[in-house]
Design goal:
Blueprint: E1 21-25, E2 31-36, H1 37-46, E3 50-55, E4 62-66, H2 68-85, E5 91-97, H3 102-117, E6 121-127, H4 137-149, E7 154-163, E8 166-173, H5 183-212, H6 223-235, H7 239-259
Parallel strand pairs: 1-4, 5-6
Antiparallel strand pairs: 1-2, 3-4, 6-8, 7-8
């Protein structure tokens, strides 16, 4: 027996339990047996727990050793998560003209099917113009045709009824409750997941770039200096090259003197 069988919103705990004996359940749901309430309170104090009455009408009442503050906090978190995951069904609206062609009808029926599959209700409106208001039977027949063609996934919640210039019918998803996640929220969740994935990829790429551009250490630090020295040497004239040019000019001068 667990804490979930408490019969009141505010169970009696610790000194609020005034009965002489209780059937005690340990913190790990082990059966301790029937003991005096005072002994159970001492056990709760020694274990730094609370003595909580979980079955008041039993004879003797059943009490359990738990951390009541932690239990209340856990229940609060569970209730919050349940509300977050619970979504109310939205009502989508699709409008038809009485003289709609076959292609447009199939397109709008596709929208109705998508909304019903997403767990949303659909309000279908036939807009009447001019003399069409005097003969609404055609609009009712069109709505009935739509209801028949989506009967596998939707049921008529509000049967066709004329309201002013419009004929309205409401379809509800079949076999899906209001707890079904609506299409809009599902798309929003997928969009958020995509944005988070892209952001994580950008951060990873940025971190990798910063790691590659870090200052070199050890032997790598000498590379720039060595490169600069190599550039300076390449700009200076090579000794052999300079000597070769001078020697070539001297040889040419000797040939000129001999010719004269």
């Amino acid at each position: 027996m667990g804490i979930g069988v408490i019969i009141s919103d505010e169970p009696r705990i610790n000194d609020e339990i005034r009965v002489p004996q209780v059937r005690l359940i340990g913190p790990n749901s082990e059966q301790v047996g029937v003991i005096a309430t005072s002994v159970a309170l001492n056990l709760a104090k020694e274990a730094n727990l609370d003595l909580v009455e979980v079955a008041r009408n039993a004879k003797p009442p059943v009490a359990k050793l738990i951390d009541y503050g932690k239990f209340k906090y856990t229940e609060k978190i569970k209730a919050r998560e349940a509300r977050r995951n619970q979504s109310t069904a939205e009502i989508k609206e699709i409008r038809f003209r009485l003289k709609i062609d076959e292609h447009d009808f199939e397109v709008k029926k596709g929208h109705v099917t998508r909304f019903l599959n997403g767990g949303d209700k659909v309000k279908v409106t036939i807009m009447l113009r001019g003399r069409e208001q005097s003969r609404p039977i055609g609009g009712v027949e069109l709505l009935q045709r739509l209801a028949n063609e989506v009967a596998e996934i939707g049921t008529v919640e509000f049967y066709p009824k004329q309201e002013g210039r419009n004929i309205i019918m409401t379809l509800a998803p079949k076999g899906k409750k209001v707890h079904t996640q609506s299409e809009q929220r599902r798309r929003g969740a997928e969009s958020r997941a995509g944005r988070q994935a892209r952001q994580a990829a950008r951060l990873a790429a940025k971190a990798e770039t910063s790691d590659n551009g870090a200052e070199p250490s050890g032997a790598d630090k000498s590379r720039p200096a060595k490169t600069q020295a190599t550039k300076a040497e390449s700009k200076a004239p090579h000794p052999q090259t300079a000597h070769g040019r001078v020697e070539g000019r001297s040889h040419q001068a000797s040939k000129d003197r001999a010719s004269h």
